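Supplementary Methods, section 5.1.

A reviewer requested that the exact input to the structure prediction be made available. We therefore reproduce it here, unchanged from the version used in the analyses.
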Amino acid sequence: MLFKKKKEETVEKKALLYRENVKVDCAPMEKEQVIRSVGQMLVDSGYVDQPYVDAMVEREKTFSTFMGNGLALPHGVEAAKKEVKSSGIAVMTFSQGIDWDGNEVHMVIGIAGVGEEHMDILANIADIMMDEASSEKLISGDADTIYSILTA
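The structure derived from this sequence is encoded token-by-token as follows.
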């Protein structure tokens, strides 16, 4: 045979959140270290390539990702979209709170979205955080509770 059939490439559709990407009661650390840690979880899970983590830090320098209610949602700058392989999130909670440019943060959710999916992810998280009971469960819950709420 002169020509071989080209293998069809299959792209694995990843879950938006894996249970191992929920870290609770983390030790307090500096904001940039938190961003790099949550970004590395996105890399390790195959959602993004390594340069996306630097883009998350860059975004924070120009626009704070503090959302209120003890929540920060770091994500990459627009130019880093090419580094996103699959939409995904990673979560870290800090029971003692950390300083985020003068604001106290207890939950950090790193976000990577393919195309405009990051807007849907942000909207869904905002909806959850607007419900006071769900918001409190997210911030103070164990990893299984947080995973259940965010994947419901």
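The chain has one domain: 24-151. These observations are discussed further in the main text.
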